[in-house]
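agent: user wants the structure for Nickel pincer cofactor biosynthesis protein LarB from Allofournierella massiliensis. delegating to structure tool.
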Amino acid sequence: MEKQEMLALLEQVQQGALTPEQALLQMKLQPFQDLGYAKVDHHRGLRQGAQEVIYGAGKTAEQIDGILTAMESRDATDIIVTRMNQQSADYVAQRHPMDYDPMSRLGIVHPTGKITAPGYIAVVSGGTSDMAVCEEAARTAIAMGNKVERLYDVGVAGLHRLLSKLDVLMQARVVIAVAGMEGALASVVGGLVDCPVIAVPTSVGYGANFNGLSALLSMLNSCASGVSVVNIDNGFGAGYLASMINHMGGSDQ
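agent: tool returned. relaying tokens verbatim.
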């Protein structure tokens, strides 16, 4: 149950359209729906401000379909499904309106394109090889009601590329810096902007990169203030956190 639904329910009680007992019954039925293989958390939007997100890896296409159907029954839109393979995406797309991106493996079911935050999030990548993680972050943020500006392949190997986009960086409310190799991009960006920077280490790089561990440690040791770090390849986590920050202080509604 979203906050708007809860308010509508309380208004019905106030107007006499529902008795307190009837409203209580509806609220009791809302917290989660047990599908056997999953317990769909319908109260997450009320508690956290964002509805449940479906992690697609390890789930069958039928299970994803069942969870989506349960969420659709409560009029959910912009439902995010992460790490979903092409076979599952093809199955789901036959049953639900979905915008699926094979690069990031992220699907948005019942996409609305609605913008609910006042500023924009800049997603910046060190190289083209980081784009899958970048797109997971960008598409997550878009599904959660944010405008996103993408600055890809502007890493420290050619710093002039990043400096040519300072106007975009400096007007962002949040920057997501995605990089593999040595992960230096986050520190550089953190030293240029006055907004929060969310660093995302990727598993891109040669042997001593240790599948992203080197970039992770570099980002954790950033000398720039205002830099936070999410897990390796966790574009979704970065997009979600950036959306929470961008929604603080009002909306364009």
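agent: one observation worth passing along. The chain is about 40% helix and 20% strand.
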